[in-house]
Amino acid sequence: MLFLMGAFLSVATEDFFSLENLFDLLVSYSFVGIMATGLLVVLISGGIDISFTATATVAQYVVAMYIIKHGGSWFTAFAMAGAIGITLGAINGLLVHYLKVSAIIITISTLNIFYGLLIFITKGKWLYDFPEWFVNGWELFRFQSSSGNIYSLSMPIVALIVAFAVTAFLLNKTVLGRGIYAMGGHQEAAKRMGFNILGIHVFVYCYMGLVAAWAAIIQAQVVQTVAPNSIVGRELEVLAAVVLGGANLAGGAGSLLGTFLGVALIAVLSNGLTLLGVSSYWHQIVIGFVILISVSVTAWNSKNKERKGADIDVEA
Fold first, then answer.
1. Which residues pair with 144 in a beta bridge?
2. CB of 207 within 8 A of CB of 179?
3. CA separation (Å) from 206 to 47, 87, 88, 90?
4. Taking the CB of the first residue and of the last residue of the chain, which one, N or C, has fewer CB atoms within 10 A?
5. What parts of the chain have a pLDDT lower than 70?
6. Based on C-alpha coordinates, what's the Rg of the chain?
7. What does the alpha-carbon distance between residue 60 and residue 77 come to, in Å, rounded to a whole number?
């Protein structure tokens, strides 16, 4: 579907298949992509987190207030945001483990608590006037195309690459990663294999909190503004991208390649609708239909495979 969509938009619009549009897409959706890596880890473990946008908002707001008033550095910003994200994530992990209640109920509750407290304390005030080092950001290198346009490997793109690389290492190269898959597949079996269930629960929600908080700092640098209501509400967009990528809501399955393609599908679709001049009021409707069709096709294919497997067993 992603290939067909890209082919259609390349023919239908002049700007879609251009280097400038590709870089704009990477920067604009780095925020969603980074968050998707954290949510993928939670889903593979068999859990779910709806509160990560509130965690991101709290971390973003507190860091923004601090650096506007006291200054600081990128190290300060990411360290503060990381500490807040890990702390709020740990609360989710401990509640999920000890209360034995559905994670979606717990994280919807904590979303409202975290976000409600932030709005109550700040009165929803927007923040501007960031220090110069924050406004300018940073980039690894820049280059000039033959047409004269300048492109750069900027902070949002680097952060997106790092998030995928670290998550890939975690899931594929560590004992903890195997424990996350095992717990998502069958928690009791993972426990008998010697994995620390409490530790994994706390870790996956702390990891989600950490990447959400860092993604929020990236988003604030891109838009140069902190608005308490700009992130909350986008959790379903991130969840849709991860599920579109093949992550199983029941746990035990999911891949970073699939997650990347899921994020790319939503990014290309949204970008294509904008380039085609479709009213923004239709974006959510069209995206919703595409997600529904994609998930339905995936579910239909899975059932077909299961049915064929069952037929082979009977014949054997």
1. 150
2. no
3. 13, 7, 7, 5
4. C
5. 298, 309-316
6. 21
7. 9
Q: How many CA atoms lie within 13 A of 89 on its CB side?
A: 31
Given a contact cutoff of 8 angstroms between Cβ atoms, the answer to whether 34 and 221 are in contact is no
What token pair was written down for 279? 């009213």
> Contact 260/245 with Cβ under 8 angstroms?
yes
Please report where in the chains the tokens 């559905």 appear, as a residue.
102
pLDDT in tens, 123-155: 989 998 899 999 998 888 787 777 777 788 899
Q: Cβ distance 127 to 226 under 8 Å?
A: yes
Task: Write the pLDDT tens digit of every residue in 78-90.
Answer: 999 999 999 999 9
Q: pTM (2 decimals)? A: 0.90
Taken in order 111, 78, 226, 138, the sign of the CA dihedral is negative
CA dihedral over 232, 237, 243, 247, signed as positive or negative: negative
Encoded tokens for 251: 């746990």
Q: What is the residue-wise DSSP string for 5-43? A: HHHHHHHH-SSTTSHHHHHHHHHHHHHHHHHHHHHHHHH
Whole-angstrom distance, CA of residue 135 vs CA of residue 221: 6
149: Cβ–Cβ under 8 A, 6 or more apart, which residues?
19, 20
Taking Cα atoms as reference points, which of 184, 182, 212 lies closest to residue 103?
184
Q: In 108-230, where do the E strands start and end? A: 139-144, 150-154
